[in-house]
Amino acid sequence: MCLNESRLEHKWYHNLKYLVAGAVFGILFVKSEVISWFRIQEMFRFQSLHMYGIIGSAVITGIVSVALIKRFDIRTLYGEPIVLSPKKFGKGQVYGGLIFGFGWALTGACPGPLFAQIGTGATVVAVPLLSAVAGTWVYGYFREKLPH
């Protein structure tokens, strides 16, 4: 079980909130052009600050959110504690980040908005989606043998 995995049993309809949240985020991604291949290429060519502004605002939101969770001991909707464990930084994050960035720059697709891109009719994104699934499978297969 993961560190923050809930031990509560819920009926199937409790997952509808994730469907709604995903649909809202998908609409926001489309409207803000976060999933636009053109905007992603502009970012990697340093031709526009559009994506850097969006990513920067997400980082700031994350920093503030984590600080509030720690300061006020905020819990989940069901009262379970949120555990934030310390992370070790290593060269694996650098290599992984470089591979991720190269893949993002080459395909114009980040794993987050892949489904929103497909939903807009960009069916060519099926290739990065299948690649992401294959990469996840390969990691799962070799996970026990990798240094963590």
What does this structure look like?
- With 148 residues, the chain is mainly α.
- The chain has helices spanning 16-31, 37-44, 50-72, 91-107, 114-119, 126-142.
- The chain is globular.
- It starts with 15 loop residues before the first helix and ends in a 6-residue tail after the last helix.
Write a concise keyword list for the protein shown above.
single chain, 148 residues, mainly alpha
Principal-axes geometry comes out as globular
Rg, rounded, reads: 18 Å
Tell me the strand percentage band: under 5%
Mean pLDDT over the full residue set: 89
In short:
The protein has 148 residues and is an all-alpha fold.
List the helices and strands and how they pair.
Elements: H1 16-31, H2 37-44, H3 50-72, H4 91-107, H5 114-119, H6 126-142
